[in-house]
């Protein structure tokens, strides 16, 4: 062993030197050179840092740099994330997406263009005018549909989701059942209100009469009873009118 090489290293190094840091790594660790100013220091890591990819060999596991436009990569020729200003497509970083694809600024990838899709039209609605279905001859009917797939940035826009057209129907009078029903309902409510009022008045009357009766009974209990005096006419002896 070279005098400058030590085997009592720390940080995952198998061999190291005071000047160059790690020279070899313990099993399963990756060796990578880190630049500090004009100097490169060897370090041993459990996984390669951003901008590097790992390669395993029988004698050593090494971290190699990705391409200049790659932020992270699986191999040198297969990027998994691109640097700012580039879009990822099939492991490559491109400044402009191929024809038929669009740039997704959120994921920084080239994705397929998605066009809008709408459902089938619903049946035409009944002919109406101002929300009514009677009392007119010419009105309008409508139909609607739903959006089932919204478009991407470069996709075809969505069509209208509703249509209206004029319609002609046989005029018919509007029944006044609703108005009559409303009047009957109002009368019923008024009748119930009057009955409730009479019931309340009767209840108050009964309570007042009960209170007066109780008051009289209390007065009779507190006053002394008067002794009954016989009538003078009843006490006089009968006059003999035979003489």
UniProtKB/TrEMBL annotation:
Residue stretches of biased makeup (Basic and acidic residues): 175-219
InterPro entries on file: Furin_repeat, Growth_fac_rcpt_cys_sf, R-spondin, Rspo_Fu-CRD_dom, TSP1_rpt, TSP1_rpt_sf, TSP1_spondin_dom
Alphabetized CDD domains for the sequence: FU
One Gene Ontology molecular-function label: signaling receptor binding
A cellular component term, taken from the record's GO annotations: extracellular region
Compartments, as annotated in UniProt: Secreted
All residue ranges annotated as the Spondin-like TSP1 domain in the record: 116-170
Region (Disordered): 171-243
Pfam families: Furin-like_2, TSP1_spondin
Keywords: Disulfide bond, Glycoprotein, Heparin-binding, Repeat, Secreted, Sensory transduction, Signal, Wnt signaling pathway
Biological processes, Gene Ontology terms: positive regulation of non-canonical Wnt signaling pathway; Wnt signaling pathway
Domain R-spondin Fu-CRD: start-end pairs: 11-110
Subunit structure: Interacts with the extracellular domain of FZD8 and LRP6. It however does not form a ternary complex with FZD8 and LRP6. Interacts with WNT1. Binds heparin. Interacts with LGR4, LGR5 and LGR6.
Entry similarity comment: Belongs to the R-spondin family.
Function statement: Activator of the canonical Wnt signaling pathway by acting as a ligand for LGR4-6 receptors, which acts as a key regulator of angiogenesis. Upon binding to LGR4-6 (LGR4, LGR5 or LGR6), LGR4-6 associate with phosphorylated LRP6 and frizzled receptors that are activated by extracellular Wnt receptors, triggering the canonical Wnt signaling pathway to increase expression of target genes. Also regulates the canonical Wnt/beta-catenin-dependent pathway and non-canonical Wnt signaling by acting as an inhibitor of ZNRF3, an important regulator of the Wnt signaling pathway.
Listed name of the protein: R-spondin-3
Organism the protein comes from: Corythaeola cristata
Organism phylogeny: Eukaryota, Metazoa, Chordata, Craniata, Vertebrata
Gene: Rspo3
């Amino acid at each position: 062993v070279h005098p400058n090489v030590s085997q009592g290293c720390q940080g995952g190094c198998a061999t190291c030197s005071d000047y160059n840091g790690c020279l070899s790594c313990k099993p399963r660790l990756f060796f990578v050179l880190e630049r500090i100013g004009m100097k490169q220091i060897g370090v041993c890591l459990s996984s390669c840092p951003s901008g590097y990819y790992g390669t395993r060999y029988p004698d050593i596991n090494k971290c190699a740099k990705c391409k200049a436009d790659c932020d992270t990569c699986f191999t040198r020729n297969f990027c998994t994330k691109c640097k700012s200003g580039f879009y990822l497509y099939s492991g490559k970083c491109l400044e402009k997406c191929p024809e038929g694809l669009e740039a997704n600024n959120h994921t920084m990838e080239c994705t397929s263009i998605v066009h809008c899709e709408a459902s089938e039209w619903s049946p035409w609605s009944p002919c109406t005018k101002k929300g009514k279905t009677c009392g007119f001859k010419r009105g309008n009917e409508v139909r609607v549909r739903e959006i089932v797939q919204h478009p991407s940035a470069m996709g075809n826009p969505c069509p209208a989701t509703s249509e209206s057209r004029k319609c002609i129907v046989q005029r018919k009078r509007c029944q006044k059942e609703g108005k009559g029903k409303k009047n009957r309902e109002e009368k019923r409510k008024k009748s119930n209100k009057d009955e409730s009022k009479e019931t309340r008045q009767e209840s108050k009357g009964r309570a007042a009469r009960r209170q007066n009766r109780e008051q009289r009974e209390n007065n009779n209990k507190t006053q002394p009873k008067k002794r009954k005096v016989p009538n003078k006419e009843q006490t006089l002896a009968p006059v003999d009118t035979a003489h």
